[in-house]
TrEMBL record:
The lineage of its organism: Bacteria, Pseudomonadati, Bacteroidota, Cytophagia, Cytophagales. The chain crosses the membrane at residues 12-30, 36-55, 67-91, 97-115, 122-141, 147-171. Keywords: Membrane, Transmembrane, Transmembrane helix. This is Uncharacterized protein.
Length: 180
């Protein structure tokens, strides 16, 4: 049986590798106060760890399922964190509420799928599609959120869609390996 210290070591590495560059970026570009950044980091990593332990480690020993769940959680945390940094989901622009819609699609799909691999695959494909719709809808309704250029906004959303689609493909693989 693994001890808690052994199981925590990968999370310590993730914290250092991910948080140090993000801390420097957040403090320089996003004008976050150090205390807010530390709190957001602790909540994000702690929440990811708890979700992973509760839902993945106890549910499945399948490595593809674990990777799929980790990728999905990571994409959600990155999406929420980026939106929090620029005033996104709960910011001044009501169009940013579409990101909340993307998260609701994923959460509703996960609940309907009861975290089973095949259903999670469908849920994550739907989430990827919803992510791709956000800039399209924002562009169609004329929001002024394209300061970095239309191509850059669509490319960023495509990257998030790829993360969700990659997770969906891993869930599909987990479902197939379970039936073999």
């Amino acid at each position: 049986m693994q001890t808690i210290n052994t199981r925590l070591s990968p999370w310590h590495i993730v914290a250092v590798v991910v948080l140090v560059p993000l801390l420097l970026t957040a403090l320089a570009l996003w004008h976050w106060k150090p205390g807010v950044f530390v709190l957001a980091s602790v909540l994000a990593l702690g929440g990811a760890r708890v979700a992973y332990e509760l839902f993945v480690m106890k549910k499945m020993g399948n490595r593809a399922y674990q990777l799929a769940f980790g990728l999905a959680i990571g994409a959600v945390l990155l999406l929420v964190w980026m939106n929090a940094a620029v005033g996104g989901i709960l910011g001044d622009n009501p169009a940013n509420m579409m990101y909340l819609g993307v998260l609701i699609v994923g959460l509703a799909g996960a609940i309907i799928a009861r975290l089973e691999a095949k259903g999670m695959s469908y849920a994550l494909f739907a989430t990827a599609f919803a992510m791709l719709l956000v800039p399209l809808v924002a562009w169609m309704i004329g929001t002024p959120a394209f300061a970095n250029g239309l191509a850059a906004v669509f490319a960023l959303h495509a990257c998030f869609a790829w993360l969700f689609a990659g997770s969906a493909l891993l869930f599909r693989r987990a479902a197939q390996s379970r039936h073999e």
